[in-house]
Amino acid sequence: MKPRNVRGCLLNPVLMITCFEVCRGSNRFGRKEFSQFEVFLISNTLFNIWIKYKPRLPEWYYNEKLLKVGDSLAQIKFRALQERNVCIYQMICSRDRNLQNQESLQTCFNVLSSLRLTMQVALPQENLCWLIYNGTIHIYTICRHLMMIGQSAKVLEYLLWASICMESSIPLLSVHYLTWRATLYTAVSQCYFDCQASIHGEIFARRGLIKIDELKQLENTSSSLENSETKRVFREATLKMSVMIFKRAVYESRRKPKSFFRPKLRVSLKEGQNLPWPRTTTERLLTEMFDGVAAQFLAILEALSDSSRRVLHPAPPVPDEIEIRDVISELFFAGLEILSGNNILLIKEYIETKYTSESYFLDMIRVSGDAAVKFIKLAFSYEEWDVFHSAIEFVVNFLQAQDDPTWKKAEMELKLLTLMQPLLFPRKFKLKYEKGLFTLENFETVYVWSVYIHTCFYKYIVFSFQNIQPDKEILVDVLMFLWQRCKTGLQRIQMNKSSSLKMRICIYTLNTLCSHMPVSKYLLAFSQ
């Protein structure tokens, strides 16, 4: 009996044996590991099969199958090129995590260009949408790293390309990929804000909001039933875009023309703290744009965030305009009201719209602990001391009540800010005793990471971290501050021609500080 297919048609024996040999040769690629020579042998075997059966096969069938083989090999090559670029990036990071070497930086941009070229070739083919999706992830990961070291202006074009690719690939326009697409939109807007082009950041965010709304209307038209997961995805994507719009709108709505005369008088917000919400213009805008205190608090954090600021380099807002200062004060005023209402939720993640694509906040009426800690750091950075002192009290109490050791890092960072405040502003604040982290006057010792050393100072400082490493940026700034103090002491010793013992003590102090700070790559600044 002759073999037949499922339709009852006779099967061509030549086609059967050809398919059998091709499948047997292709299955060898299923192994996880194989040498370069084995790959060469397998490839040659496959091509020899097609050469062997070419005279016996119909021309149309041969060409069709040969094209499919070529497509498969092209996909393998594209994926290999992408993974090669990722490996190059990982190798660079292993040698130079902060990309301080100019050569490392240039290599990262070369990797981004290579990824973009690969995606450009694959973009016209819908069946290669997975390659486009993976490429956007790789581009975003590298760009996120570069944004954190101040390279937003250079990575903007690559993030724009990734966003447009997601829009140009029809399979990637579905609701399933909307969360990731919104993350790319947010990253582009953040790049514009980092480049001091806030108007373009807002325009791009509004464009993203329009795209999200178009997809929502299409989804409503095609399906009468909208499940909870789809609603959550649209709500999260809309929130991300709304936050970036609010980031500029909250300031621009209050700006006055330069020719407009306004007396330099600031209204005291304390007078209205007992009034019902919304109490200020900023709070009314928050209420109009966002539902729930968690979304409002996220918008406040993003409006206050500035990539050019460092926590331990506190300074007034720039530009120094009355309207801008009023808005910032109102933002802190609103944030403090939200925190003081027992709205802190014990979760470690919240949507940080600059860099993450994490899940939507878990509770619409609570604020995450990480968000509360970031709010206090921002208050310190903007010299909003009333807000800082009010918020840190109940946030630290909240953190101390938690048994999870992961919260000890946040608690230590806040205590470190409390310690550094009187050292940075000795005329405004007096040194106070605090259990576990404190300073005292009229002593000549420094206690650093459980190391007890004598110094030439007339104060001593306690940093008892107990194997908990605070934020590296804060550690670097603390170290640089102590270095400046030691530098002054060394100069005084040299000028007074004091004994070499004090000189050795100061050098020993610096050496101990450096050996216990896990930031040795930053110590080149000491030569300045």
From TrEMBL:
GO terms for biological process: cilium assembly. InterPro entries: CFAP54. It comes from the Eukaryota. Pfam families: CFAP54_N. PANTHER family: CILIA- AND FLAGELLA-ASSOCIATED PROTEIN 54. This is Cilia and flagella associated protein 54. The lineage of its organism: Eukaryota, Metazoa, Chordata, Craniata, Vertebrata.
